[in-house]
Specification:
Blueprint (H helix, E strand, L loop, with lengths): L14 E4 L4 E6 L2 E6 L4 E7 L10 E3 L3 E4 L4 E4 L2 E3 L5 E10 L5 E6 L9 E4 L5 E5 L2 E6 L4 E7 L8 E7 L4 E6 L4 E6 L6
Antiparallel strand pairs: 1-2, 2-3, 3-4, 5-8, 6-7, 7-9, 8-9, 9-10, 11-12, 12-13, 13-14, 15-16, 16-17
Length: about 190
């Protein structure tokens, strides 16, 4: 059972990423929370709704990530208007400690919604959407297709992680409800 949050949660929780052995970042509709299982506490840490968003618009993300080298939280929300139409897709970076917005990047395709994300060794963001793996380079602000995961029988990415010690990427496949471990050398990274 989760501890009582410091601010109301707009359920459901949509993704989770480990920040440490006892802390996890979790996203719900419009907000990101940090769960500290040692406290225990659930604290609103970052809001993935930009300040300029019209009051009637809403945001949803299925992917939250963590960059431990730079101490950044990341999210990839889509923006919806009052009628539920998708009007934008973005990547956002936040300070891990304060939750302060640092950067917002608008993607060219407003329909893009990643099911998982993880930082690669070069400081770029890997995003899984459907059965495809994309790379977002923060310097060039370019999103590019790097691989198709269907050859590993992955139909829809619902989570990504990299095990650097094992040299593998772990993919949660939503359609089969299972974890698939892929040798990084087999990917076109």
């Amino acid at each position: 059972m989760l501890p009582q949050p410091d601010v109301p949660v707009r359920y459901p929780f949509t993704d989770v990423v480990a920040l440490s052995a006892t802390e996890f970042a979790m996203t719900a509709i419009g907000d990101g929370y940090v769960l500290d299982v040692s406290a225990p506490s659930l604290t609103q840490r970052f809001c993935y709704v930009p300040d300029a968003l019209p009051e009637d618009d809403d945001q949803h993300t299925d992917a939250v990530g963590y960059d431990p080298a730079r101490q950044l939280l990341l999210a990839q929300p889509q923006t919806y208007d009052l009628d539920g139409n998708v009007i934008a897709s973005q990547i956002a970076r936040y300070d891990r400690v304060t939750g302060t917005d640092l950067d917002w990047y608008t993607l060219p395709d407003p329909q893009f919604l990643a099911g998982g994300m993880v930082m690669d060794d070069d400081g770029a963001l890997l995003l899984g959407e459907g059965n495809k793996l994309y790379r977002f380079d923060f310097d060039s602000q370019q999103l590019g297709l790097v691989d198709t995961l269907s050859r590993f029988r992955i139909a829809r990415v619902d989570g990504l992680a990299i095990d650097r010690n094992a040299g593998t990427m772990v993919v949660v496949d939503n359609t089969r409800d299972e974890l698939v471990e892929i040798d990084l050398a087999q990917l076109n990274l």
